[in-house]
Amino acid sequence: xxxxxxxxxxxxxxxxxxxxxxxxxxxxxxxxxxxxxxxxxxxxxxxxxxxxxxxxxxxxxxxxxxxxxxxxxxxxxxxxxxxxxxxxxxxxxxxxxxxxxxxxxxxxxxxxxxxxxxxxxxxxxxxxxxxxxxxxxxxxxxxxxxxxxxxxxxxxxxxxxxxxxxxxxxxxxxxxxxxxxxxxxxxxxxxxxxxxxxxxxxxxxxxxxxxxxxxxxxxxxxxxxxxxxxxxxxxxxxxxxxxxxxx
Length: 247
Ligand SMILES: Nc1ncnc2c1ncn2[C@@H]1O[C@H](COP(=O)(O)OP(=O)(O)OP(=O)(O)O)[C@@H](O)[C@H]1O
Ligand SMILES: [Mg+2]
Prior knowledge:
Bound molecules: adenosine-5'-triphosphate, magnesium ion
Strand order of the largest sheet: 6-7-8-3-9-10
Number of domains: 2
Mean pLDDT: 93
Low-confidence stretches: none
Shape: globular
Order of helices and strands: EEEHEEHEHHHEHEHEEHHH
CATH class of the largest domain: Alpha Beta
Radius of gyration: 18 Å
Number of helices: 10
Structural class: alpha/beta
Strand content: 15-25%
Number of strands: 10
CATH architecture of the largest domain: 3-Layer(aba) Sandwich
Distance between the termini: 34 Å
């Protein structure tokens, strides 16, 4: 079976800064690939390129076996994302926002789907709240509901637990694992919470200055860098120790 997402030798430079440097990755159906890396490593830029929001300077991106540049609309109908970087229209009520997006995605029975997702994310009580007045964690959960409206086959989650309290973060991790079991999307996942990465991701790519420094399971990466946990490995990378040792 061919991968849902295939990124091949993609480079993105912002003037002199090479944010993503000849990066290749694949994600299969039912797989969660974690992108790990310090602030500025290039994770969000990778996601933006997969959404067609940022155009790579070089390389190609194939989703569902189709070239992203040529089939962007078809691909995005079957894709969705949750990010802390984009806010939903702030003056609309939660249900109105979800209704607008359900319309954009052409969801049949939108009311039913929205209710189901509000229940799933435990935000049914917020359906009539003004989106711009939600707390950060509430807003993230509305964003997650938006991300699941079209039952995406490719799901990009950029720091989905960043502003969540430990209880809700745990529920989001369980939700991702449940999705994996039930509908097997391909998921690309970033987080600075190592617990997320360990619990949710099947494989990890450790990015550093837009390049893959290491890849494998959390266990592989801990062994390779002799870290007792991913936090320790992460801190080593952030302080350039690994560069000095291994590159
Ligand atoms: N539109 C842009 N114009 C100029 N530079 C940019 C732009 N977008 C990203 N960059 C730069 O590219 C680099 C990678 O940024 P990116 O947002 O991909 O990092 P990240 O790994 O997601 O970091 P974080 O963990 O902080 O979210 C950074 O140095 C950033 O300043
Ligand atoms: Mg980012």
